[in-house]
Write a structure and sequence with these properties.
Blueprint (H helix, E strand, L loop, with lengths): L4 E2 L5 H10 L4 H17 L13 H10 E2 L4 E7 L5 E6 L5 E9 L2 E5 L3 E2 L17 E2 L2 H15 L13 E4 L9 H12 L11 E5 L3 H10 L3 E5 L5 H7 L8 H9 L10 E7 L7 H10 L5 E7 L13 H13 L30 H15 L3
Helix pairs in contact: 1-2, 4-5, 6-8, 9-10
Length: about 375
């Protein structure tokens, strides 16, 4: 069992404190943070031996106290359309998924924030898995680093990078893991770190209204809303969080989102469910509801999964729905399903991890402590 502290996912201040605690002189710690930060996030270093411009004694001391290991890849699947999905094992053995979607001139990584989810959205496979735990900032950042490793995308500041966009749209509700998501996305957006512009980072929420303004102020990414219905009686069923935060309240929070403008529109995600939310009346209600919000609407054909209670809307109906939204002045691209053959499409992610019983956690802790005892 790894007993060293991971440097991944630490803020610069937290990394400095960790180094000082490990014996690095206070006066030298800030410089050492800059050196390590560059090696880890610009060059993708996986161990201290790669850091050729640092003294061997320092590298040896760092290796004794810290690790740069990514979370473990359990499986990698590649779809017929080039989409890649990784099943990743994090701390405690729990597993989660992340997906890379290649497109001409860009590549988007769909990142998870939790193992499982509490929201139970009826159309989402992840929602059938109870929340196991929040992912750490190291596990969130680790997903980006795993993808860059696989794509040969180092250094992070180089040209022609294949990974150009990050979307917090994987497993879980990012705003229910706010602090870890905030810390991780600051590293992703750091020009001296993983070096993605905040405009290329999108955080998607099902509508945790009290956290939306704070996300705009403290994270500053683009915002996407998993809306999926324009009437409360429909959304109450398919997105149960709506019973707590109604559509009008959610849309008011969108109107007040810091920095929202025609140049920085909010994305509304709308999964097309046959006979549920796909009528032309629904389309008109959607246009009415979001009036005045700089926005685009992503229409998402429902991606089936075993036991799903819904069917995808007919293509002809999706086109009619999109036409009404377009005529109202909103871009409404119909998202092409990607990675369906490996269960990597929107709403299909899930792992088999279960929440560990308290008695099991205590047994593991006792076992670990015994293993560390001398003799």
């Amino acid at each position: 069992m790894e007993t060293r502290t991971s440097l991944l996912g630490l803020s610069p201040d937290a990394m400095k404190s960790a180094l000082v605690s490990a014996g690095v002189a206070e006066k030298a710690a800030a410089m050492r943070v800059r050196q390590l930060w560059n090696w880890v996030y610009v060059h993708g270093a996986r161990d201290f031996a790669q850091m050729s411009n640092l003294a061997k004694d320092f590298r040896k001391a760092m290796d004794a106290c810290f690790t740069l290991a990514r979370p473990q890849i359990v499986t990698e699947q590649i779809s017929n359309d080039g989409t890649r999905k990784w099943l990743i094992r994090g701390e405690g053995g729990q597993e989660f998924e992340t997906v890379f979607i290649p497109e001409p001139g860009r590549g988007t990584l769909c990142v998870s924030s939790q193992v499982g989810c509490t929201l139970n959205c009826r159309f989402c496979h992840t929602g059938t898995q109870k929340l196991v735990r929040n992912l750490t900032s190291a596990e969130i950042v680790g997903q980006v680093m795993i993808a860059r490793d696989a794509l040969g995308d180092w250094p992070s500041t180089g040209e022609n990078r294949r990974l150009t966009n990050v979307v917090m749209m994987g497993m879980g509700e990012p705003l229910y893991n706010f602090d870890n998501v905030k810390t991780a996305l600051a590293i992703v957006a750091d020009g001296d770190g993983l070096a993605l512009s905040r405009r290329r980072i999108t955080l998607s929420t099902a509508g945790v209204v009290p956290m939306i303004k704070r996300a705009g102020e403290e994270i500053g990414s683009s915002l996407a809303i998993s809306l999926h219905a324009a009437r409360d009686e429909v959304r109450d069923v398919i997105v149960p969080l709506n019973k707590k935060y109604k559509i009008a309240e959610l849309l008011d929070a969108c109107r007040a989102y810091p920095g929202v403008s025609n140049a920085r529109r909010i994305t509304f995600e709308y999964v097309m469910l046959k006979g549920v939310n796909d009528s032309l009346t629904d389309a008109r209600e959607l246009v009415r509801a979001i009036r005045g919000i700089p926005a685009k609407i992503n229409l998402i054909p429902f991606n089936p999964w075993p036991g799903a209670p819904y069917e995808c809307s007919d293509w002809e109906q999706i086109e009619k729905f999109a036409e009404i939204v377009n005529r109202a002045g909103y871009a409404s691209p119909v998202r092409t399903p990607r990675g369906r053959d490996i269960m990597a499409a929107c709403g299909q992610l899930k792992s088999e991890s279960l929440k560990q019983r308290a008695s099991e956690r205590m047994a593991e802790m006792r076992s670990t402590e015994l293993a560390r005892m001398p003799g």
